[in-house]
Structures are given as C-alpha cells and as structure tokens.
Amino acid sequence: MLQDRVEEYLGAIYRLRTGEGEPLPLSQLAEYFGFSPVSIHEMIRKLDDGGWVDFHPYRGVTLTERGEASARALLRRHRLWERFLTDSLNIPWDEAHLIAGDLEHAAPELVTDRLAEFMGEPDACPHGGPIPPALQSSEERCLRSLGAGAEARVTRISPETPALLRRIAKQDLIPGRLLRILAQTETETRVHLQDMPEPALSIPETDAQAIWVELM
Ligand SMILES: [Zn+2]
Fold first, then answer.
1. What's the CA-to-centroid distance between 100 and ligand 1, angstroms?
2. Ligand 1: distance of its center to the CA of 207 in Å?
3. Nearby residues of 99 by Cβ (< 8 Å), 6 or more positions away
4. Which DSSP state fits 143?
5. Chain segment 159-209, per-residue pLDDT in tens
6. How many angstroms does the Cα of residue 29 sit away from the middle of ligand 1?
7. Under a CB-based contact definition with an 8 Å cutoff, are residues 131 and 99 in contact?
8. Distance of alpha carbon 143 from its chain centroid, rounded?
9. Which of 19-33, 73-87, 110-124, 162-176 is predicted least confidently?
10. What is the 5 CA–ligand 1 centroid distance (Å)?
11. Ligand 1 center to residue 136 CA distance, Å?
C-alpha cells in the first residue's frame, strides 16, 4: 500500500507539472488529492528522503531520475489498461480511467509488456495521453522467459515492491550478479550463481517475473 501511495504521488507530479524539470508547487498537489498542505508536505519529505523527488523550498517538487522512471512506468501501465478496457472490453472511458487506477498498481511488468504487444503497441490512451515507451533495452529479458542453460547478468528488479525486494536481497540476486539457469518449471526457476557460497537457488515463478537480465 505504501508503494501504491508513492506511485500515486510520482504519477501526479508527472501529470501536473508544466514540463520536465519544472518544479510543481505543492499547492497543486494539495488541490489534486484534496489533502491538507501539511499532509502533502509530510509525504513530499518522505519521498525526498527516499530519493524519489527533490523538494525545493518555496518553489515545489521535481522528480529525481528514479522518480521519473517510476512515474513513466506507472503512466505506461495506466494508459495501456485504459486502452484495453475501452477498446477490447467496451467500457466507457470515464470508468476506464477509474478502473485503470487500480490495475496500474497490480500488474507485473511482464503483463504490461504483453498487454502493449496485444494492443499493437498503441502510443496514446483513449483520452489522448501519450503512452511512455518501455524502459528496458531490447536485449533486456525477463528471467522467467529464458530456458535451461541460459547464462545472464541481472540488470534490474521491477516492480520494486518492498516484500519482493526483501526476498530478492535475501537470495542476493542483486543487479550485476551472473547466473546460469539450471531448470525452468511452471512454479520455479533454478539458477546457479557465479562466485557465491550457496550457488544453487530456487526462485519462485512470481519473483522470477520481476528479475530482468541481459544474456551473456
Ligand atoms: Zn487516459
């Protein structure tokens, strides 16, 4: 839930600002969310501490590189769901916006990418909002999509949900780690980690969907 709130704020800053790098006054966020200036200020402080935004006293808030990437990914999911809901399910566009607001937090990146493919890589939502392109380079693949024998380097963990990040940290599957896939079944991916004391790991399917790698 905290991650959802962080994303809500990053998405709102991205939507409301007048241009990239332009500080957004906190009064606009207060108006958008209908919260008091004090609670907006408190949340912005937390986001600043977390490295998501930079707070500029008296001027407003800008997104850091990390915040920018997260906001773009959120808008991409939101607008792709809107397209699907209106075009494929014939849901009116005002309702589609509300439903997409829930779905945007729930779907893993693999689903978003498949959805984009399924909808023919649309470049705008039904309301005309541009759909940001996927961030990962074409060589980046989801661990789940590879087969036994593949050798790869971990590049990214996404989505960055806290519980998932804790599990992945425990297995030491941090970006830069080299691995080889021993076996891939419906429920788990077994990998061999290079230069690690405990080289063989079993990764549940849901976690493997969030681990992005480049092939060696
Ligand atoms: Zn839209």
1. 9
2. 30
3. 81, 85, 91
4. G
5. 878 888 889 888 888 888 899 999 988 899 999 998 877 778 999 998 998
6. 19
7. no
8. 16
9. 162-176
10. 19
11. 23
Hey, which residues does 152 pair with through a beta bridge? 179, 215
Give the tokens for residue 127.
């309301």
pLDDT in tens, 10-25: 999 999 998 888 999 9
H helices of the chain, in order, are: 2-16, 26-33, 37-49, 65-83, 93-106, 109-118, 162-170, 205-208
Q: For residue 78, how far is its CA from the centre of ligand 1 (angstroms)?
A: 7
Asked if the bond preceding 25 is cis, omega within 30° of 0, the reply is no
Span from the CA of 47 to the centroid of ligand 1 (angstroms)? 25
Q: In order of start, what are the domains of the chain with their CATH numbers?
A: 2-63 (1.10.10.10), 73-118 (1.10.60.10), 140-215 (2.30.30.90)
- 51 CA distance to ligand 1 centroid (A)? 27
| CA distance readout (Å), 11 to 68, 146, 167, 180, 197 | 9, 32, 26, 36, 41
CA distance 97 to 40: 23
Calpha distance 89→103 (Å, rounded): 14
